[in-house]
Amino acid sequence: MGEEVDRVEFTRADRTAFREQVHRNLDAFARMLREARFAPERPMTGIEIELNLVDERCDPAFKNSEVLSAIEDDAFQTELGQFNIEINVPPGQIDGLGLDTMESNIRDSLNAAEEKAARTGSSMVVVGILPTLLTEHIRRDALSTNPRYALLNDQIFAARGEDVEISIDGIERLRVTADSIVPEAACTSTQFHLQVTPEAFPRYWNAAQAISGVQLAVGANSPFLFGKELLRETRIALFEQAADTRTHELKTQGVRPRVWFGERWITSIFDLFEENSRYYPALLPVTSDEDPIAVLDRGDTPALSELRLHNGTIYRWNRPVYDVVREKPHLRVENRVLPAGPTVVDTIANGAFYFGLVRALADDERPIWSQMSFSAAEENFHTAARNGIEAEVFWPGVGTARATELVLRRLLPLAVRGLDAWGVDVAVRDRLLGIIEQRCLSGRNGASWQAEQFHVLYTKGSHGRRDALRGMLRRYRDHMHANTPVHEWPID
């Protein structure tokens, strides 16, 4: 959500006032777009990485308050579940040695935090879904103590009017219900932010949507949920269902979900914010005293807090972001597609692939989104979530092909071109994209390693299911801390 809220009850008048204020924010935003009031495009990125906490047995540790107190670093914050925390990496440059520096800084921060977390009997794991998380851990009191999470929980369930149903058919089948949004906390992600101009935003957002399936295929890292092996990136289906505010009847009527891929290519960032206001009722109708038009009239920058708060409760896989830094507004594409992990170097390699590819596609004279339907991009996304690195996806001029072959033959050269356009150091570029190349050549990413190691312990070995998941996660954690790329991880 990104906003602190302390209201516990909302009236009809609150909702009416919030809706009116969102529309006034939209009017102000449209005027800002017309008057070109935004910061220029810079090769800047920020990264958010969500983490899981485990105890000495590699089971979930419900200690995020204790861990954060021990870490004492403002870069680390609470997340939805008490077994989650998040690191917000300060914005940095993509060009030159920027990605290399970012990798080193993240590693240093995580290593220091891990050492302090150990004093609480906890350890951090960077993974899309914690493999040892079971249904017995999904209870209302597992929510973080920050009041905003309880409020969000209450508002979602007030909108739903019934329990959450999680139903996923994969290698195994899962059917569970929950009386809170805690299952959403199982979804731990990596989010890449890319600052762009209003004019460039549609191209970058469309490009990010077009490659989302390929990103998932090579970066999948969430094969297990509640002890069952499901999809290679189970986090996608879980998040779509756990944060769904619709009843069965509203789904049947075609009401749009709050976790949303979208339905069309765009021509302006305004399209996305306008869709948010048109399609979605407010979950947290907290209004400010700001009159954004008056703020613009006196030459200042409005916060547009209602627009931002509402946007934060609609979970697009590629989300538009309006922000103000040092009184200067700017826009970002927030790429929310990928899971956390497996290592810092894998994360930065995923980032390099994304930054390079979207830059090349955004700069292309014949845009990829003019050659493929939006529904084809969405189908790629869900196919990749199901099958991971073995997924077959559609690409214009190629047809349907293995995602790994598409990356090796077509997309890696584009990513090279894009990183060169950003001004990334050649050695940094080659090292990071080389990790993506080797992942595709070996056919091994986080999800495939987890599944293979689990089956060695469970199917072929003498471990029970729960102990096999613990044993796999223990090995995963060791490799993660060594920062060895996942394609090099052994199976034992």
From TrEMBL:
Keywords: Ligase
Gene3D superfamilies the UniProt entry points to: 3.30.590.20
Keyword field contains Ligase: yes
Spans through the membrane: none
Stored InterPro entries: GCL_type2/YbdK_subfam (IPR050141), GCS2 (IPR006336), Gln_synth/guanido_kin_cat_dom (IPR014746), UCP012666 (IPR016602)
Keyword Ligase belongs to the record: yes
Pfam families linked: GCS2
Name of the protein this chain belongs to: Glutamate-cysteine ligase family protein
Organism whose genome encodes this protein: Kribbella hippodromi
Lineage start: Bacteria, Bacillati, Actinomycetota, Actinomycetes, Propionibacteriales
